[in-house]
Design a protein that fits this description.
Layout (H helix, E strand, L loop, with lengths): L12 H9 L8 H14 L4 H6 L1 H7 L5 H5 L3 H8 L8 H21 L2 H6 L7 E2 L13 H12 L7 H10 L3 E2 L8 H9 L3 H5 L1
Parallel strand pairs: 1-2
Helix pairs in contact: 2-7, 2-10, 9-10
């Protein structure tokens, strides 16, 4: 039987699958990063599992997270999204997603890719934290504070330091699996010889 992270509710198969297959796996594909940013910003003030259950609806509502298409969504699209029971019908968050798509494209143009911009914050290498108990899980970090501050300066919405730290955990910028979790070491091994700087620069 696999030992998993202490925060995980193992009675929820979809949550277990997310933990086992996605959480903490390094992502450097911009389309996937935009998906995670969209979902994390929607999660602000809610549980991640609430958003995870709505993920398929978000994928459909927001053009499979195609950033160029989301960036050009109109007021008519917003009205339709407000009637979509499959997503969080919060107008500010819907408008933030469209705004964030526009800002995301600006970052891509400046840095060549959003991934390159994002991974610079950890010097192109996942940070591995020492997690022995629930108390060891950080809610934020000095890096997420700087990252969130810069995103805010660039005009991004609903991406404060705590939300940004959750994003960093989700997309592998930090490996916050419990030390005893069966996913911890394989993720360390998978990135040990990865030259992400060369890949993205």
């Amino acid at each position: 039987m696999c030992t998993r992270c202490l925060w995980l509710d193992e009675s929820k198969p979809d949550y277990v699958a997310y933990h086992d297959e996605e959480w903490g796996v390094p992502i450097w594909d911009d389309n996937k990063l935009f998906e995670f940013i969209t979902l994390e910003s929607a999660q602000a003030g809610l549980s991640w599992y609430t958003i995870l259950k709505k993920r398929a609806h978000y994928r459909s509502a927001f053009k499979c997270f195609n950033v160029e298409q989301v960036a050009t969504m109109t007021d008519e699209d917003v009205t339709q999204l407000m009637d979509n029971k499959g997503i969080v019908r919060n107008k500010a968050k819907i408008l933030a997603t469209i705004n964030n798509a526009q800002r995301f494209i600006e970052v891509q143009k400046e840095f060549g890719s959003f991934a390159r911009y994002q991974w610079e914050y950890v010097n192109f290498k996942p940070i591995v934290n020492d997690i022995r108990s629930k108390e060891d899980y950080p809610a934020t970090s000095e890096i997420s504070e700087r990252f969130a501050k810069d995103l805010k300066k660039r005009g991004f919405k609903f991406l404060g330091p705590t939300t940004v730290y959750a994003h960093m955990q989700a997309c592998g910028m930090v490996n916050d699996h419990d030390n005893a979790c069966f996913r911890k070491q394989p993720l360390i091994e998978s990135t040990k010889d990865l030259d992400l700087r060369s890949l993205l620069c």
